[in-house]
């Protein structure tokens, strides 16, 4: 399995954030990303149901 430097940097940054500020900030970041992901997924899926009046 190949290791990606970007993934390693992201993991290192997340670990550093947890060590410096506790798990509260990390949990907030995860929740915000999850909510934004759900909103973008819903928008992407629902835009296909738009009715066109041609």
Written description of the protein model:
The chain crosses the membrane at residues 26-46. Keywords: Membrane, Transmembrane, Transmembrane helix. This protein is mainly α and 54 residues long. The radius of gyration is 18 Å and the shape is elongated. The chain has helices spanning 5-21, 23-46. Helix 1 crosses helix 2. The mean pLDDT is 79. The longest helix is centred in the middle third of the chain and has 24 residues, at 23-46. The chain has 2 helices and no strands. Helices cover 76% and strands 0% of the residues.
Which characteristics define this entry?
single chain; 54 residues; mainly alpha; transmembrane; transmembrane helix
Alpha-carbon distance between the two ends:
51 Å
Q: Work out the strand percent.
A: under 5%
Q: How many β strands by DSSP?
A: 0
Order of helices and strands: HH
Largest β sheet strand count, sense and barrel closure = none
Integer average pLDDT: 79
Q: Helix count, per DSSP? A: 2
Rg, alpha carbons: 18 Å
Shape: elongated
- Going by helix content, strand content and strand pairing, the class is mainly alpha
How much helicity do the residues have? over 70%
Unreliable stretches covering 5 or more consecutive residues: none
Concise account of the structure shown:
This protein is mainly α.
Task: Indicate the topology.
Layout (H helix, E strand, L loop, with lengths): L4 H17 L1 H24 L8
